[in-house]
Amino acid sequence: MKALMSSSILRPWQWQPPHQKTPTPLVCCSAVNASSSSSSEMKFKGDGNAESVSRAEDLWKLFREAQKNILQLNQQRVKAVEELNKINREKELLVDRIEQLELEKQAAIARPQDRVSCWELLFWIDSTVLNGIVTTVEASDLRRLVMDNKFSLPEVFNDNLQKGDTEILAELRHFSERIKRNSFHIVHVCTEMAPLVSVGSLASYVTSLSCALQKKGNLVEVILPKFSSLDLNEVQGLKEIEAECYSYYNGQLHGNKIWTGIVYGIGVTLIQPVYYSSFFNRERLYGYSDDFERFTYFSRASLDYIVKSGKRPDVIHIHNWETAIIGPLFWDITVKQGLEGTRILLTCHDLNSQCLEHPEKLELCGLDPARLHRPDRLQDNTKAHLVNILKGGVVYSNKVVIMSSILSKGRVIQSLSHGLDPTLNIHKNKVIIAPCGFDNSTWDPSTDNFLPVQYNAKDMKGKTVCKAALQQHLGLSEHASTFLVGCIFSKVSDVDLEKLKEIFLKTSGIDVQYIVMGIGKISSVNKLGSLHEPLKDANVQFIDGNDEALSHLVFAGSDIILCQSFHDPGLQVPLKALKYGAAPITVNSNDEGFGNFVEHNYETTNFSRFISSTFGNMTLSQALDEIKNNPSKWKRKITDAMEMDFSWDAECCDIHTSAYTALKNL
């Protein structure tokens, strides 16, 4: 029996019925009683061999044992699987919890309410200085504390903001023991900021650059005049500081009301003159005969507020001629009032916009005309009897940033300085060229909710869908081989109209569809519409650019975007086109000055270098020819362009950060 068991016991999945060398003929087989579990109930009728019967019974016992083992193993397997599933579920819950905590951590960094609490602390410091609770020196240290710990301080001081000044101050002093300085404190003094008040490219520049700088750990503030046209609904937590801030103007001190709030996480201070209340209570921002008086008053008031509130910024960032007077004001008057460590950076968005005035008017804000009306200071290079305020900003600033996406520093100084070229040449070592960026949080085909299908450089299928959707929406024939060209303009001159007409007629024999969109003033849209009548072409469609969703679809559906210039700080058409996989081609393709590119290569921007090597010198006909005859090369250009980062967070922010670093080391 032992031998039988040792040789016959098999694994459950290996068991087979026994085979006999000489099978015994069976006369009959009794039925197995279903209610019985005993093998002895099975009877064989045949030759009556007792040994065969005994062997069969043993085999059935082994079979039942094997079945029992199978059931036990199955139960153990099911139990093991259940345990494994339980462990996996617990693991998934743990991973989900970790991810949730990480998201909460990231959200804590970016939560608007935390940034608001941070700015509430900063504004509280301002008010304590103005009310004599703390000195300007201590206030500067406290601001540095808030700047270096702006993401952790709100959690510590949220409750304490409801306490008294003495208790808050004690908590801040205790916390300041762990202070470490590792970032910049920048104060913009300017006349525009999106979305509060916007006329030109300055507004979006100030807001976007400030947001980009704060993302990298810097503390950025903005000081604006309290224009009557200013949209106060966009300001969070707007309130008036109770203490009145006085500033010097026209031989005496005058009071100003100070308002504070937050816009996109940026601390904003609004200055409202009490005596000269009409300065900023007007329909327009600019264009008045007393603009010099208006903005000189604001500039002096801003500096006085910075001093009296105890701010010690690393950089006071001024813009255009409207606040350029801060340069001479700072170095002749303010620097000795505790701002020895502060430096001045001037940004010029349009060198053609200058302010010439009689020298004696400088006395209004406390400056000495005899000291400043000199060739090496504010005296205008052409009209020697006048002072040039923008020139004074260039001379008295530590760094000068000229905003230009495509032109080299040498080209700007030599050809586009509008009479300031002698001054810029003298100070060229502190002149920097920076490109405009664009808002990639709103303009990105991979996340754009206006599009029927989103896409990116690695998967361009969605662009084909967008093209078909655009053609269908405008009633154009849907052919994949048709080239779709979007034409997007703001202000349209008669010269632009004639060139557009010439382009359309020149390509009339090619399978090209045009979508002409006027973005901006209604007069521009109507002017573009005047092309429709003489052309009368089913492949040319005119649309109103006020439709935001359609504007996004035009960029996504077009193969090429015709634009007026590669330097487009307002609409940013070339930058958006590149991001959406459409080649930007200018109407005046040879007017951008890439011919001397190599000579000034070291003075140009990344954007300029990329454009010059891809689409810079290309006409529309050349672009269409390359799409048709060399599609692989064209596709590489398009995908390379989509993968480039031309947002505010990239080159523009990096250039300004480098400038601030250089100023810090002066």
Short descriptors:
666 residues, Rossmann fold, 44% helix, starch synthase, alpha/beta, 4 domains, nine-stranded mixed beta sheet, glycosyltransferase, five-stranded parallel beta sheet, Starch_synth_cat_dom, starch biosynthesis
Textual characterization of the structure:
Residues 185-424 form the Starch synthase catalytic domain. It comes from Malus baccata (Siberian crab apple). Pfam families: Glyco_transf_5. Its EC number is 2.4.1.21. This protein is flat. Helices cover 44% and strands 15% of the residues. It has 24 helices and 18 strands. The protein starts with a helix and ends with a helix. Strand 5 (236-249) and strand 6 (252-263) form a beta hairpin. Helix 3 (112-130) packs antiparallel against helix 4 (136-148), helix 8 (291-308) packs across helix 10 and helix 15 packs across helix 19. With 666 residues, it is of the alpha/beta class. The strands form 4 sheets. A 9-stranded mixed beta sheet has the order 5-6-7-4-3-8-9-12-13, with helices on both faces. It has a 5-stranded parallel beta sheet with strand order 16-15-14-17-18, with helices on both faces. It folds into 4 domains: 2-78, no CATH class; 112-182, no CATH class; 184-434, Rossmann fold; 461-646, 3-Layer(aba) Sandwich (Rossmann fold).
